[in-house]
């Protein structure tokens, strides 16, 4: 084991650093969109954001890519919480079902990602996005490829 691996945080530890604001990493999609890590547990992540007008599609509602990004982030990070230090992942597949439109007027969207299966080579997770009234906006599943330490 290299020195880098022995001092590197596990996936869960890294995401808890992100949640607390202690992570001093590069700019991220979460920062760009204003995502907040509300819950970070082994196999489970809850992220939220406030919608804004620049999230709009041509119809004036939140673009589906925002929901897809929330889902990909929450589910992928849920997988990451199950990984040891030095092990990464990448999304192999993302399947999103859109249920209803979300407004762009500052409403809070909350997304929960939960691991279904964490294996040595692949992991699967599921996620749901709800608006602040608790209405389901979208739900999804993912398959992630586990990237072992080189």
TrEMBL record:
Keywords attached to this entry: Hydrolase
Keyword match Transcription: no
Source superkingdom: Bacteria
Annotated Thioesterase domain residues: 60-137
InterPro entries hit by this protein: HotDog_dom_sf, PAAI_dom, Thioestr_dom
SUPFAM superfamilies in UniProt: Thioesterase/thiol ester dehydrase-isomerase
Entries under Pfam families matching the protein: 4HBT
Keyword Hydrolase: yes
Protein name: PaaI family thioesterase
């Amino acid at each position: 084991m290299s020195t880098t691996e022995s001092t590197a945080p596990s996936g869960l530890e890294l995401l808890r650093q992100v949640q607390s604001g202690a992570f001093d990493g590069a700019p991220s999609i979460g920062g760009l969109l204003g995502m907040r890590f509300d819950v970070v547990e082994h196999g489970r992540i809850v992220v939220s954001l406030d919608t804004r007008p620049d999230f709009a599609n041509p119809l004036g509602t939140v673009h589906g890519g925002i929901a897809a990004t929330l889902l990909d982030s929450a589910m992928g990070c849920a997988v990451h919480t199950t990984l040891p230090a030095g092990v990464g992942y990448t999304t192999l597949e993302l399947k999103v079902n859109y249920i209803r439109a979300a407004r762009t007027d500052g409403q809070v969207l909350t997304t929960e990602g939960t691991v279904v299966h964490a294996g040595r080579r692949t992991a699967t997770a599921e996620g749901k996005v709800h608006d602040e009234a608790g209405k389901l906006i979208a739900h999804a599943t993912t398959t992630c490829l586990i990237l072992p330490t080189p």
